[in-house]
Amino acid sequence: MNIAETLKTYRKRIVDEWVYRLHTEVSQRYSGRRVDELFRTVSKATEANYAVLIHNDFSKINDHIRWITNLRLKGGFSLSEVQNAYELYRTVLLPVLPNELNEKNLHDALRRMNYCLFYTITKFSNYFQSLHEKHIRNYAQNLEGEVKKRTKELVESESKYRILVEEINDGYFVTQKGVVVFANQAFCNMHGCTLQEIIGKPYTELVAEKSLRIVQRIYEKGTIGGVTDDVYTYFRRHKNGSTLPTENKIKSILYQGEYAVAGTCRDITERMETEKRIRESERLAHIGKLTTSLAHEIRNPLSSVKINSQIILKNVDFGGNDKRRMEIIIHEISRLERILDEMLDFARPIRLNLEPASINSVMDACLEIMDARIRERRITVKKLYGRRLPRILVDSEKIEQAIINVLLNAVEILPEGGNIQIITKQLRNNGKAIHVEISDDGPGISPEDLRYVFDPFFSSKKKGTGLGLSNVNRIIEAHGGTGSVLLRKPHGTTVSLTIPLREMT
To answer: Please, which residues have CB within 8 angstroms of residue 328's CB and are 6 or more apart in sequence?
Structure first.
């Protein structure tokens, strides 16, 4: 006989023995079911297996899995009980096949049977687990008493959910008596530790000093009265010593028969940075509007005062201290005009008019504009220009404005006889770019202030607006480049500007 004939011939014997074993060997729950129900479920399973083995048709077994899963879930059956019930088909069928099939047909029948059972048990397990979880969630929402019962079942089947917990991106952890007793890989990664380093560690060792008191109060509340969906933000401690903003959502649970606190831990560094940038943008937009309005209101009377002062200064009868006073007035008016220009540049959106240009030529043009000031203070400028640098697409006027701002800072901070060094070169690492360095040997900037030098309105100079370097950075970023300020040894400052090379059409 072939396998189809064998299955038809022995169908009644297979069903009878399967029902008998199911009723007597698997579990108390199966023993407690009515025999006529077991005949119905086993008969359908036998027909579904026949369709797979003979016709490679999985539709009936899929229908059977959906039907039996709902039936067994309502009866309170465990996953392993139903898996063992399906496995009995192999136990019943194996003694029959060798007696009826030749070696070739037997090998083929065993292969089909093993694949059929592998598919059935795997498909059932996945479906059973998904429905089981949904059933628990729905039950927990409506019946408080049933929650306690299901929570115990969940604790006992922790291994079943461990894979799910390991695959989520947020950190998940459980603490008991202040000690971490469970953590997923994401939680370990957030703290830069291995699982072995995390388990058994007091939770307070993972909290930054500045957040320790608030976290301790929350966990003390959980120990006394239980925690119900508490959400709080704090700074966690990374293994490398850094502290990072974090959001925790915690809740009291039963873990291995004892009360514990479970939590979901999420890094919110990016969210906080985004919120900070939004607040800063709103603040700067408001300042920009106010600045534009004030600048226009001040510029007209200021221009009138300057023109009249210049006319008075040309009076030949003017001399001595009076003439010097008028020169001071005109000089200070010019300084105020420069401040207004910086404020308007800050408030005005940057629009680029890109044209091919040589960075060395742009630098020479800036030095020519600054020549009188440089000579007046007897400053030495050393130029180390790269040779054969490619022309780049830039807004020459805007780049000149940025470089002059940097040179003005250097000239103003340097004592007489100071030194400025200018380097231009092409970078080929990480994409092609033109790099400019402007260094001075002045007093430099304090390390504490270094991180704020590009912030609007930040200035260490008594008469500075704090907009010069901010506008420099805006212009370079508008070209797709980057700017940075570094301390120079033994003293002084280096401003680095990097502008990417664009395709010329």
So the answer is: none
Note the maximum CA span of the chain: 134
Is the preceding omega at residue 443 within 30 degrees of 0, hence cis?
no
Q: Fold for domain 355-500?
A: Heat Shock Protein 90 (3.30.565)
User: Distance between CA atoms of 60 and 69, rounded to whole angstroms?
Assistant: 14
**Domain residue spans in the chain?**
3-142, 157-267, 272-347, 355-500
Backbone conformation region of residue 169, classed left if phi is above 0, alpha if psi is from -120 to 50, else beta: alpha
Identify the burial level of 58 via C-beta atoms within 10 angstroms of its C-beta, where 0-12 means exposed, 13-18 middle and 19 or more buried.
middle
pLDDT in tens, 145-186: 665 666 667 666 655 556 556 667 788 888 888 899 988 888
Q: Which of 160, 141, 162, 164 lies closest to 78, judged by CA?
A: 160
Q: What is the pLDDT of residues 266-275, one digit of tens each?
A: 888 888 877 7
The contacts of residue 305 (CB under 8 Å, 6+ apart) are: 329, 333
- Angle among Cα 270, 449, 378 to the nearest 5 degrees reads 135
What single DSSP character describes residue 5? H
Which CATH code is given to the segment(s) 157-267? 3.30.450.20
Global pTM reads: 0.40
Q: Write the DSSP string, 140-196.
A: HHH-HHHHHHHHHHHHHTHHHHHHHHHHSSSEEEEEETTEEEEE-HHHHHHTT--HH
Residues 26, 7: Cα–Cα separation, whole Å: 24
